[in-house]
Amino acid sequence: MSTWEKNIRRVTPYVPGEQPKNTSVIKLNTNENPYPPSPKVEEALKNMNPEKLRLYPDPTASELVEAVAEVYGLEKEQVFAGVGSDDALAMAFLTCFQTPKPILFPDITYSFYDVWADLFRIPYEVQPLDDSFLIRLEDYKKENGGIVFPNPNAPTGLLMSVEQVEEIVRANQDVIVIVDEAYIDFGGISALPLIKKYDNLLIAQTGSKSRSLAGMRIGFLFGSPKLIGYINDCKYSFNSYTMNCPAIAAGTAAIRDQEYFQQCTQKIIETREWAKRRFRELGFLCGDSMSNFVFVTHPKAAAEELFTALKSAGIYVRHFKTPERIRNYLRITIGTKEEMDALFMFLEQYISTDRSV
Ligand code: PMP
């Protein structure tokens, strides 16, 4: 190793799902929304004057932050906006987990948490989900430097009640607890009201899923003004202008169009409930996902082979090789009804062919 290499911060990076160049594939691999963003977003972008791009954007993204605060019944000091919730969560890790004690998160969860922990040199300890892939509350009642978990969890899609979330927060008032609600809008109940009661609770949400803005990169953190203030201090010490002008305009328009948001999420929920029944009819084990994806396994089909067969047929889903416990599962995003029909047409054929594992 050369001398300069000894000073390099070395990390094993997060691997995002594939974004194929071929746009004719059925893309059910990265939990994007199959529907376009609100028509108000198109209008806002069309009305944007490119002349404005000469100037730096508003570093506080106040138009967006104020719209979010208004729609969610919060003070603007309780809202942080970032370049997708990945950016917001990374900033939260950097700010909140300055600790020699390990932070805790589930063994099967969003695979970015251990990457941020490694990047920022935060010690961590994973807590195994139970045999039904559920979080065991007692695992989060020990000495720790902080806690983070998604609700619903990813890639399982399984939801915890607000009471269960509160039990974890109540037991950990000396550390920051981050609840990653990237998928909460697909039928879950948000723990957001709890931020008024617990000043150590941070909730993350995103514009990427329920608002169809994955390509725009918009995410949020909600917490006490004091906690959001500390996160902003870190953000301004890293990059003041994270949110660009089009993102601020598009995000504001999307957040204000609650009617479109309700219609769109409702359609996805209906397709998901129908898809769960179809998967079970075909012999898949399919948990009770409350997100915009399902997590399935079939006793007679090896997940990796099915993943490859689907890909050859132009249907992209997600397969995780680790942890070992989920190796035979596939995470499949809920697409439009037509996309799901094409998926089930393929699966019917595939499953009816004998393939013992
Ligand atoms: N949290 C979870 C659990 C996710 O699955 C994702 C999507 N990859 C994110 C956060 C980040 O989403 P985004 O950066 O697009 O807001």
Low-confidence sequence ranges: none
Helix-strand pattern = EHHEHEHEEHEEEHHHEEHEEH
Determine the oligomeric state from the structure: single chain
Radius of gyration over C-alpha positions, nearest whole angstrom: 21 Å
What would you note in describing this structure?
With 357 residues, this protein is α/β, with parallel strands linked by helices. It is 34% helix and 13% strand. It has a seven-stranded mixed beta sheet, sandwiched between helices. A three-stranded antiparallel beta sheet has the order 9-10-12. It has a two-stranded parallel ribbon with strand order 1-11. Strand 5, helix 5 and strand 6 form a beta-alpha-beta unit. The longest helix has 24 residues, at 258-281. The mean pLDDT is 97. 4'-deoxy-4'-aminopyridoxal-5'-phosphate (PMP) is lined by residues 84-86, 110, 150, 154, 180, 182, 206, 208, 214, 219.
Short account of what is shown:
This protein has 357 residues and is an alpha/beta fold. The chain is 34% helix and 13% strand. The mean pLDDT is 97.
